[in-house]
Amino acid sequence: MPKPSHRDRLLHVGMQVVHERGFGGASVRDIVQAAGVPQGSFTNHFASKEAFGLEVISRYAEAARGRAAATLGNDALAPLQRLRAWIAADRAAQADGGLRNGCLLGNFTAEANDCGDALRQRVLEAFAETQRRLAECLRAAVAAGELAPSTDCDETAGFILAAHQGATLLAKAQRSERPLAGFEDVLFGRVLPLAGPSR
Amino acid sequence: MPKPSHRDRLLHVGMQVVHERGFGGASVRDIVQAAGVPQGSFTNHFASKEAFGLEVISRYAEAARGRAAATLGNDALAPLQRLRAWIAADRAAQADGGLRNGCLLGNFTAEANDCGDALRQRVLEAFAETQRRLAECLRAAVAAGELAPSTDCDETAGFILAAHQGATLLAKAQRSERPLAGFEDVLFGRVLPLAGPSR
User: Fold this and answer.
1) A194 has which bridge partners?
2) Of A114, A161, A177, A186, which to mutate for an interface test with B (greatest number of B Cβ within 10 Å)?
3) What one-character-per-residue DSSP string does A70-89 give?
4) What is the 8-class DSSP label of residue B44?
5) What tens digit of pLDDT does each residue of A9-45 get?
6) Which among A38, A47, B161, B175 counts the fewest CB atoms within 10 Å?
7) Which of B186, B192, B194 to mutate to test the interface with A (most CBs of A within 10 A)?
8) Structure ipTM
9) H or E stretch including A199?
10) Quick check: A14 and A34 in contact, CB under 8 A?
11) Which residues pair with B147 in a beta bridge?
C-alpha cells in the first residue's frame, strides 16, 4: 500500500480534529500539528480553510453513505430491520467517540450562522441524501406490508432525520446513550405507522 | 429606568453575538466591540470568558423559562394546547432570528467537545428543566383525559426535547420552517398517545 500522502493525512486526522473541536475551534495550526506535517503542506494542498472544510464534510458524508449502504441498502434484511441496523451502526460510531463528538454535520450546522454558504450547502446535500435513503427504506417497508400504505414516507423520513440529529445532540450533552435509546423506542413504538394484522 | 450597566450591556449584546457566531467563534474583542464598551469592562465584570459563557447560558435559559411559564404553565389552556403554544412561541423566536441561529443551548453542545464541564453542566440543567416542564404538561394531559393513561410522560418528554432540538437544527441548516412544521405534525399526529373516545 502506498504511504498516505500529506493530503490524505491532513484530511484523515483533520476530520477527527474538526469533529472533536468544531470547525471554528480547529485552527490550521492544530490540524497540521495533529497530522504531524509541515504547515506549508496545508497551503500546498488546500486553497483555504473553507476548501479544506468542504473536503472534510465530503469525507464524513462518504463514511455515512457507506454505513447507509451497508444497512439501509441491505436487501438481505426486512426493511424495518434495515432501519434498525442503520440506527445501531450510527450508535456504534458515536459510542466509539465516547459519545463526545456528536454528528459532524450537525456540529457544522450548529456552530455558527456564517460558516460559509458553500459549507452549509455541502452539509445540506449530505442531510438530503440520508433523508432520501431513509424514505426509500420506508417505501420498501410499505411495499413489504410492514408499514401502513398511508405512510407519508418523505415526511416521516424528514422527521426521523431531525429526531435522530436531536437525539445525537442530547446524547453528546449528556454523554449518555439514553437519548438514542429513547429515540429508537418511540420511533418503532409510535412514530412508524405499523401495518396492523387486520389492515 | 436606570441606564444599563456595562455588565448588562455585555451580557445582552454578547448573548446575541454568541448565538450568531457560537461561543468559540465569538471573541472577547467581538463582544466588547458589539457592546460598544471598553475592553477593560469585560475583564472588570467577568473573571474569564468561561464565566461570561455561564452567565450567557443562564440568561438564555431564563428567557426559555419565561416562554415555558407563559405557555406550558398557562392553566387557562387545555394541556395539549399549552404544548402547542410552547412550540409556537419557540418557533416565533427562531423566526425572529431569520432561522439562522438555532438554539443557543444546542449550539453550545454541538460546537466542541471540550467547551468546559461547567458550561456543559449549565446547559444540561437548562435542558433538564425544559424536559421536566414538558413532562408536567404531559401528566396534566393524561389527568385531563387528553392522553392515554399508559403514557410514559418522562420518556415522551425526553423524546420531545430531543426531536425539537433536531428540528431546530435542521431548520437552521435549511433556513426553513419546514422541519419545525414536520416535527409538530408527527408529534401530534403520531408520537402522542392520544386518548381515544373508546378508552
Assistant:
1) A147
2) A186
3) HHTT-TTS-HHHHHHHHHHH
4) H
5) 999 999 999 999 999 899 999 999 999 999 999 999 9
6) A47
7) B186
8) 0.94
9) none
10) yes
11) B194
